[in-house]
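Figure S4 source data
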Amino acid sequence: MRIDSPTRRLPRETVVPMINVGFLLLIFFLMVAVIVPPPPFEITPPQSETKQPAELNSPLYLSASGELAWGEARGEAVFDGLASVAGPESQQPLTLVADGQAKGAEVARLLSRLAGLGFARVELAVMP
């Protein structure tokens, strides 16, 4: 007499390892993400012809009404904070995020004062 052996079922594929990999990637990207704080006041930068985004390490903000902000400092306290990082050995440029409606004379006065503090290079951030 001939007895057939039972057919073997293929093991089900489990998606648990794929879910684990997905969560590990999510955690990795959250850990290495750079979170940029929002601007201290409403800013609409001028338009640009280039498509290259600016790097905003610690930008100086200038509003349309002439308000200044740098980190936690506001108003005249900004210049005290900037004086501590400015100098001839500082090779990194300062990024200025100015509102598109800011007066040119105000920007020129600000640039002159920044040059007096020791900033050799100031970059203006614009919208692409």
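Figure S5 source data
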Amino acid sequence: MKTFLRNHQRLAAVVGLAAMLLAMVGAWSAAARVRGRMAARSDLRRGHCRILTYGLPPSWLPEYARLLKERYGVELHPVAGCIVSRTLASYVDSYDAVSAAAANRKFGHDVFKECTEDARKSAAESDGVSVHPR
């Protein structure tokens, strides 16, 4: 084996480098939750409260984003559409957990629930749908 490695140093270096890259990719994916929390804390320290989104947006999303921004200074930032990797979903979910908790602590209530309800009502009213059936 020693003779083989000595005679094929370039091959051994390429194989070793490939193995290191695979390990780094795996570690990067595994650390998505930690990276999401760290990024959210960093943004909050700099005064940026943001919620990341992915997936098919509901029709009332623009109104929801407007309400969050105007009332509470929280920005909505889409990062992906319907196709989302597990790594990205993990990152976004961790990021949002930290950001949402900070916003709710700061304002003393669930600002996201409030804005969701108001945005849905507004969208239903603009569509001519009764929100509260009688």
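The chain has six helices and two strands. The two ends are 83 Å apart (CA to CA).
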